[in-house]
Amino acid sequence: MQRIHRRKSFWTTLGVAALATTLAACSGAGSPSDTASPGAGGTDGGDGGGSLNILMVGNPQMTDLEGLAPDFEEESGIDLNITILPENELRDRVAQDVSTGAGQYDVVTIGAYEGSVWTANDWLHNLQDMAEQDEDFDVDDLMPAMKGVLSKDDDLYAIPFYGESAFTMYRKDIFDEHGLTMPDEPTWEDIEQLAAQIKEAEPEMTPVCMRGLPGWGENMAVVGSMLNAFGGGFFNADWENMINSPETTEAVQFYVDLVKNYGEEGATNAGFTECLNIFSQGEAAMWFDATSAANSVESPTSSTVVGKVGYADAPRQEARSGWVWAWAWGVPKTTKNLDAAWEFISWASGKEYEQKVGEELGWTRVPDGKRLSTFEIPEYQEATEAYRDKMLAAIEQSDPNDCGTYPRPAPGCQYLAIPEFADLGTRMGQEVSAALAGQKSVEDALQASYEYGETAAERHR
Amino acid sequence: MSTTAATRERAADTRARQPGHSRWGWLLSLLAWVLGILFILPVAWTVYVSFHQEVDAAVSPPDFLAPLTTDQYEKVFGSRARPALINSLMAAGFSTLFVIALAVPAAYATGVKPIRQARGVLQWILSTKFLPLIAALVPVYVVFQRLGLLDNIWALVVFYTGMNLPIAIWMMHSFLKEIPKDIMSAAEVDGASLWRILTSIVLPLAMPGIAATGLICFILAWNEFMFALNLTATVAGTSSVYLVSFITSEGLFIAQLSAAALVVSIPVVIAGWVAQDKLVQGLSLGAVK
């Protein structure tokens, strides 16, 4: 019996040794940085700009870039390893990567909010000098609102890829049919009245689609921009909690009533994607959302209402419903390929790239809203005739440092650029969503949100 | 049990339960149909949606007159599908091989010729599954980072091997216990070595069990998402990570995602189909005593 035991342990040892040898052999054999043999290479990014690891969200403009990336690889001799992840996973991965110093990514797409927060965390490279020294890049051409959301002390820490504000989209044909007019600069009351008229004239239609899905980047983007319009806000410049102020309450009450009476069915499950869907299927008469939606709304492969849509400014009340957002390129401090990273960014956010997208994929697919010069390209002007001016005006009128009726403690229009906001916004979004579902009153929802706000503001006071 | 015997038995089974033979037969058959359709419906819908443009895929209720297109599949094959599939095949394939290579001897040592404290060892092996995987995420990440193994497919192979080993040992343990001891005693009496007993007697007899265990390990490794997401970056991403890349907060993606999901499911379906014959025997091995 004893002998068998020993023999067993011999076999176990042999098995483990064999396994270890196999592993060592395989990982040794498969480590060249050849992208054709995936999974083999490590992340030794230090080989002098030979390859660049890019992490981005899968928005249509980014997948277009993925398709055009071989052109860049050919021109520059830099291989691009592109990974696409949904927004939330991307944030987690970058946070993990930077905080552990793993340095697996050289360029990442970030939203305006992360731009501010990560810059404050000292996670991102200052790109100002590189942008200025690169003459082809023409940094002065970037729109002030974009610089506003992506800079710290006038230095750019992320370079915009495309930018957006918000505006009102409406079905021109339906409005004409029923003799309705959308004012160029509607008020929220105009929107409500028009919605009531549409409900009567077109009972089958959703009068207005508004995001209701809880989340700081979902319903709270719309609610946050409405707070600006009604004279409310999250905090004033002294960090005084304004979440249960009468103005904020009025704004949220208006939002809840509007969506309850005239909004889409199942509004608490409808975010940007659902509204885009409803609107581009011709099932909604109005939609207040990001200007970048226009690219999809006017694209025949994703929309049945191409050419039937009119555009008006973001609704206002006491002030405009301000909204500025950018999708931008950031370079984590952990990168070992700063120069190559800039070369890529300069290409992706450059003027030539816009020309390339316009010529090869179509002018409505240009990643727009970041450069003033984009709006002067004749082909672009022609293709985006319907919404170009409104988009430009909306972005130009939205100043992330001057939103709503009183000064804010941090930049941001439909959000607030503090690390605590993602949590606060999402919790408040859930409260607002509960009010929308009729589970609690707006006052109760805001009182609960006020408490979350207290926690968020504590560190800043 | 030979294949023909199994088929005969299945056939006899079906005859006995044929609808119409009993008063409630039609009801049972109706129930079976309803359940069957209920289970197949999501898959059928995925297939349906994957052959449409985004604009037609998003319509509710579905428009059955909408034109069909293979655009989505062209896009899937034109993108990062190939490396992701190869990575998944490597991670799932190699880890399954290693798991089987380790689980069979372990199961032999705990089931066939139990070592001292075999019961305790088995319990201990199972106890490693008590910890929720998410709790191990940070330590595992840090260990792989220190070893310089992040974004390396072999790191996933090692991880999946460890992840599936307890299940495999337990499964193999029960399969090996089914093998009549007398056969092995006879071989021992004839002077067969341990190696000979393992390769010539245990392995062939346990083949159905190995197939079943292997398939389950393969599926678990293939579908694993959390660690694949966190331990890989740009080159070693598996197909489950590749799948979520279609989810975007701006723009429509249902048709594209459906096509990608089907493409990614194909290897598992093939693996199941290959193992099917053995699997049926394997899964019923413990049941027929």
Automatic annotation (TrEMBL), chain A:
Start-end of Low complexity biased regions: 27-38
Composition bias, Gly residues: 39-51
Alphabetical keyword list: Signal
InterPro entries: Bact_solute-bd_prot1, SBP
Signal peptide: 1-29
Pfam family, one: SBP_bac_1
Domain of life: Bacteria
Region of interest: Disordered: 27-52
PANTHER family with a match to the protein in the record: ARABINOSE-BINDING PROTEIN-RELATED, DIACETYLCHITOBIOSE BINDING PROTEIN DASA
Name of the protein in question: Sorbitol/mannitol transport system substrate-binding protein
Organism expressing this protein natively: Tessaracoccus oleiagri
UniProtKB/TrEMBL annotation, chain B:
Biological process, per Gene Ontology: transmembrane transport
Annotated localization: Cell membrane
Domain ABC transmembrane type-1 intervals: 85-275
Alphabetical keyword list: Cell membrane, Membrane, Transmembrane, Transmembrane helix, Transport
Regions crossing the membrane: 24-45, 84-109, 121-141, 153-176, 197-221, 227-245, 252-275
Domain of life: Bacteria
Record membrane topology: Multi-pass membrane protein
InterPro entries from the UniProt entry: BP-dep_ABC_trans_perm, MetI-like, MetI-like_sf
Any GO CC annotation of this UniProt entry: plasma membrane
Protein name: Sorbitol/mannitol transport system permease protein
Species, as recorded: Tessaracoccus oleiagri
